[in-house]
Design brief:
Layout (H helix, E strand, L loop, with lengths): L1 H28 L14 H21 L17 H6 L6
Helix pairs in contact: 1-2
C-alpha cells in the first residue's frame, strides 16, 4: 500500500508543480486576481500548503515503505496440525 501512495503522491506533486510553473507568468502579471485573459487566479498560498502536506505524506509513506518485497513462500504452506489430521482420518498410529 505504501508503494502506491509514494508513486501516486510523487506523480501528483510533479503534475501540480508543472501546471503551476506554466501558469506562473500569468499569476505574476495578474491584476486584482484576474489574468489578462480574464480568468481568475488560484490561491498560491493554498497550493503551497497542499503541496507541503502532500510532500510530507509522501515522505512518511516512503520512510515506512518496505525496502524490498519478501521472498515468496514455496512448497506446502499449510501443514495440518495433529487435530486436523485425526479429524480427517489420517492420524498417526
Amino acid at each position: 500500500m505504501n508503494g502506491y501512495a509514494v508513486l501516486y503522491g510523487t506523480i501528483y506533486l510533479t503534475v501540480l508543480a508543472v501546471l503551476w510553473l506554466t501558469a506562473l507568468p500569468d499569476l505574476l502579471s495578474a491584476h486584482e486576481g484576474v489574468t489578462g485573459d480574464g480568468t481568475p487566479i488560484g490561491n498560491p498560498y493554498y497550493v503551497l500548503g497542499c503541496a507541503a502536506v502532500c510532500a510530507w505524506v509522501v515522505a512518511m509513506a516512503a520512510r515506512n515503505a518496505p525496502a524490498a518485497a519478501p521472498a515468496p513462500i514455496t512448497g506446502n504452506v499449510h501443514e495440518p496440525r495433529e487435530e486436523e489430521q485425526e479429524a480427517a482420518g489420517n492420524g498417526r498410529s
